Amino acid sequence: MKKEKPLPSKKQTEPAWYHIDQLPALILIILYSIVDYIPNFKGADVMGAQWVYLCGVHILSGLYLLSFGRRQAQEQLSAITGNMLTLVLLAFLVIAGISMSWAINRVESMVVYSRLLTTVLIFFQVGILLGGRLNLLKPLSVVFAGMVLFQSLEVIQQFYTGINDGTPLDTVISNIKVNTGNKNILAASLAIKFSFSLYVLLASPRWAKLPMSILLIIFIVAIAMVNARSSFVSIAAQVFLAIVFLSIAMIREKNWKQGIESIGWVVVPVVIGFFLSTWILQSAIEMQDKPTGYSTITERAKTITFETSGRNNLWLGVIDYIKKHPVFGAGYGNWKLASIPYEREHIDELFVAYHSHNDFLEMTADTGWTGGLLYISLFAIASFWLLRILLDKNSGKLFKPALGITLGLASYFTDAMFNFPAERPIMQFFLAFVLAAILQLHFEHRKILNRQVANNTSATLLSSYGTCFALALAFAGFFNIKVYQSMRGQYYINQDMLKNEPSLEFDQVNQDLPSIPNLNAFCFPIKLIKARYLMKAKRFPEALEWLEKSRNEAPKLSINEFFTAQCYLALNNKDSAFYYATKAFEYRPRVRNNYIFLNQLLKERKDSMQLEKNFAIARKLRKEPWIWGSFLSSISGIGVNQKRYKDVLDSAIKLFPEDNELKSRVQSQAAVTVRPYFDIAREYFAKRDFKKAITSFKQAQLLNPADYSFDENIGLCYYELKDFRSAITYFDKAIASGKARDAKSFFFKGICQINSGKKEEGCSTLREAASRNYPGASDLIKSNCGN
Q1: SS3 sequence, 396-441?
Q2: For burial by CB atoms within 10 Å, which of 75, 94, 175, 670 has the most?
Q3: What is the pTM assigned to this prediction?
């Protein structure tokens, strides 16, 4: 009897990741992931081009799934759309979309919503591409680990280049951003890729673990150089979770040797990287001439508190807003505008906090409690599914990929707790990728548990998905392209418009800034920016029209009211100018221009009472010398009594003893105070009553000892009285001050010395006066000194 061949195992029949059927999915997902490397293409922010790039990859993946990958889409779509995670994500998408109807700024809401749509499309597209292809997780993780290596090496290279060039450490670290917007974005993207590097390490054969360990050491050194505290929390959380779940697996399987070895492979590279980075940073700090705001991982970790993080005002403000707007919120993407009143006493100038540095709070503030609960539910469901896999003794080969994805989710969660990853294309890719991978892990786990997974998609569902995909992509693509076009204009306009005398012309600005988005990167309305250039062209009535149209696009930011006041002042409508200048100061009292401009108008109105009130507000918010300087200029112009002026000036000079403007005011004030004594002294001098002149000059000197001229004049009086010794004493004081405008004291001191019998010294002093071109000095030298 012929022996039957055994059926091939699943492992034998499962195609390798490099199989022709697998490669398109692998390549398309990699194309999504390299969004981190897309440059700004002359945009004001690199993210503008990156969102457009993601839409371009959507087109490629959509074309593939509707043609060669149609069968894959048909097999996976039902399962992807019919589970709790996807339904919650779609529910949040709907709530966020509905919130646009009551948004503070609907255009800005649509701009930000387009990014959410882009992210949700990544989830669906990657979910379909990954469907039944969990074997792609490892090669994809290898690619992400490669990105970690190259970015980490670039960070280290930038760090050492800056240090070796003698650049201050604070500047070196602040400038480390590779191709991201700033170092915090870089740190977050590195941290989430670290989770996939750990997965590769754990899933690799022993021969591959050593190079992966070296990669992790390099990564820890790089992340320490970036010095972003939230990334330290993320790495610590990932290492802790890895140790916990590896320990659970070790105890469950009673495989102590393998368990301890796995934990060692995680811990040892991190510890080595920690000590190496500490040595490097300490060495760099010791090279600094001044104290630095950055330090080693340990020292930076000690500063992680609610108060020092800078998030206390942000979080308290957003929590208060949520309490007051529990149902509707500000509208998706509009917290940046709702936050402006909360920051009036905390943020200088016209800066906007933009984000609450906690995506969960911000989503709730934008969409109300319903949207906030749906958003946090995404992470709750994903965490529950992962926990079931990690704790199931039958999970088998799903354990390690589930652990890697768990670490990725933990990293994103940490970033969302302290920053705003929803704004960043690279982090949104990883969120969508992690959720899509969790979905596939969940499906595979259900199969292990012998639970049914829907995997048949009707033609109607596929057509509906294709239609929705096309419409969503059209919406997202339109707004993302518009934002990128605006970013290209903002690249050179944003800074120019803030100058006292902008160099650009209205027609150029009007052409290069589209109406969508209607806010620039600083949260300034685009119409307002254009109005600024109309003001430059002295087209004030037109500027006022544009300002009126944009007033509610970024309410209470105050720049609109400030420009409006300037327009009315230029049109000699002083009452309207005063009204809007008052509004500007009321909205943002910490803005320097608002305070100074309003003071100028109050000075003209001679309103000392309001000047005093505004001064009390401003000095409480910003203890800076210009606050006192502006107030003093204003009250001096309306005839305030000298005692009040002197009291304010004295208090200012005590607070800011090194401020040159205040020093000058002290001199001017002293000059005013001593004027009566100086005038009397001059009268006595003219009458040749030198003794009384000396008395008056000395009284003036007591009131203003810094004025050298009093010493010089007293010396001249003693000279006239033939008291040469006393005269020399005062001429020496005048010379020692170093403030004399000419060589008069040298000239008369020389004469006094000759008359006192000190001819040689006197001649030397006269020569000094002659070298300074004092009239008559050369003649006296010839007649008294023989040369």
Answers
A1: HHHHHHHHHHHHHHHHHHHHHHHCCHHHCHHHHHHHHHHHHHHHHH
A2: 670
A3: 0.84
CA–CA dist 707, 749 (Å, integer): 19
Residue 14 counted as domain residue: no
Query: Which CATH number goes with the domain that contains 533?
Result: 1.25.40.10
Q: How far apart are CA 32 and CA 188, in angstroms?
A: 17
Is 2 exposed, middle or buried, given 0-12, 13-18 or 19+ CB atoms closer than 10 A? Answer: exposed
Distance (Å, whole) CA 650 – CA 306:
37
Question: Which residues touch 156 (CB under 8 Å, ≥6 apart)?
Answer: 218, 221, 222, 225
Amino acid in the structure at residue 683: E
Residue 645 has which token pair?
Answer: 């002026």
Question: Contact, 171 vs 435, CB < 8 A?
Answer: no
636-691 pLDDT, tens digit each:
777 767 778 778 877 888 888 887 887 777 666 666 667 788 888 888 888 888 88
What are residue 525's phi and psi, to 5 degrees?
-60, 140
Is 376 part of any domain? no
* DSSP string for 66-111: TTTTHHHHHHHHHHHHTSHHHHHHHHHHHHHHHHGGG-SSHHHHHH
pLDDT in tens, 379-420: 999 999 999 999 998 888 999 999 999 999 999 999 999 988
Residue-number span of the structural domain to which 609 is assigned: 507-666
Token pair recorded at residue 206: 């022993």
Q: Is residue 277 part of a domain?
A: no
